[in-house]
Amino acid sequence: MNTRFPENFLWGGATAANQIEGAWLEDGKGVSTSDMQPKGIFGEVTPRTVGDFNIKDIAIDFYHRYAEDIALFAELGFTVLRISIAWTRIFPNGDDKEPNEAGLAFYDRVFDEMARYNIRPMVTLSHYEMPFSLVENYNGWSDRRLIAFFERYAKTVFTRYKDKVKLWLTFNEINMSLHAPFTGVGLPEDSSKQAIYQAIHHQLVASARAVKACHEIIPDAQIGNMLLGGLMYPLTCRPEDVLETERQKQEWLFFGDVQSRGYYPSYMERFFEERNVVLDVSEEDKQDLKHTVDFISFSYYMTGCVTSDEELNEKARGNILSMVKNPHLTASEWGWQIDPVGMRILLNMLYDRYQKPLFIVENGLGAKDVVDESGNINDVYRIQYLNDHLIQVYEAIRDGVEIMGYTSWGPIDMVSASLADISKRYGFIYVDRDNNGNGTLARTRKKSFYWYQDVIRSHGESLK
Ligand code: BG6
Fold first, then answer.
1. CATH number reported for the structural domain that contains residue 25 in this entry
2. How many distinct structural domains can be found in the chain?
3. pLDDT per residue as tens digits for the range 322-346
4. Is residue 319 lining ligand 1, measured as CB closer than 6 Å?
């Protein structure tokens, strides 16, 4: 089969500031919500002082090693690299009047380094973190004033980097706030639905205001949303299972609907009513929401099944969404069910629903790699996973889906988001560091490095 992707298809990798940068208090950076979660996004929020161990404090030290890492990405042939800006490097407390110049200068250096190799930056404004001071002093996104703070932050970075960055994303996996409210909207895990949906509303308005500002400040840029692609199948063909699957689908697609259509979908009225959720939505909010995204981006790792039968409801261990196991699929070491065909299904579904270009901004396999006695990492399982998913991306392109590009998750090993576990590796590049912080932080090319290099060089023709 000829699997040559379109010439303008962007190839690369995706990262997040709090999982790679380290330097958690350097050059004026403020404390973020991520700094308070040493066990990852589902772990306890732990009050901490300097000196407590948190693997993310150094992470993989991208803050100091970015030049070396970007050179490796260039060697891979990347044409795009997704990073996020840590809000706390720019506005350490979130509500500061003036930005922190040292933080702004850091990302200038990173973008300049990418430009040397013609790698296009794709920048997430908020990836699973926010200034912790906004949680302490404003109760996170439950406070409407955060919309303006976020808007100021977004406008600051748009203005500063307008000549360097033409691809932007607002909030990473915005739909995950339902499952991890502290990480998503800065609220306690046991918050009421009312509190969580009001905070989500504020975040949706902030996202739309960022879209508006981006269009005004950088007219030739494109800005997208970012969804956790939670594809689900009915466990059986019982109509009740199918209906329940549709209902659960709406629960996460609602975010994409608002961000791409510019208003709340009608099905949410009943949803809110049945949960006693009454949202405070102003006229101004409604106008703001009309600023819709240019493209839809999403992550895709796994799928699961849905049943209306409680007894069958044996939960799969999942990435944020807990779903029932699919007997037709195998799973990763962390129980994430591997489903390449689901990638094609999801691409078709999202394109059909939104009729906007799609960007796959996360996809990959977390695995425990072994360094053999010669120092090689023979990660054939990762090659298989990525190969099989990319074949399905190609199939979707043939189905007529407009896809801008693909950034695999974690092109270099980094701290995992859910568990803060560094042994869960995704990279083409191995980083010598363990969960206790031991290791030299040296970078080594894995077998998958050369495989992905071939894929990019051949525009996908080398896929099998
Ligand atoms: C996505 C996140 O949910 O999944 C990333 O956007 C995260 O930040 C990725 O790293 C993989 O999850 P994990 O927990 O294996 O790192």
1. 3.20.20.80
2. 1
3. 688 899 999 999 989 999 999 999 9
4. yes
| Alpha helices (H) in 77-192, listed in sequence order | 87-90, 101-116, 132-138, 145-161, 181-185
Instruction: Single out the catalytic residue among 151, 244, 362, 395.
Output: 362
417 lines ligand 1 (CB under 6 A): yes
Q: What is the average pLDDT across 373-398?
A: 98
- Ligand 1, pocket-test mutation among 416, 422, 424, 425, most atoms within 8 A of CB: 416
244 carries an active-site annotation: no
Domain of residue 166, residue span: 10-457
Average pLDDT over residues 123-140: 98
CA pseudo-torsion sign 146, 158, 99, 410: positive
**How many residues are recorded in the chain?**
464
Residues 257, 382: Cα–Cα separation, whole Å: 33
Contact 200/191 with Cβ under 8 angstroms?
A: no
Q: Is 362 a catalytic residue?
A: yes
Q: Are 188 and 141 in contact (CB under 8 A)?
A: no
Residue 2 domain-assigned (yes or no): no
pLDDT of residue 219: 98
Q: Is residue 463 part of a domain?
A: no
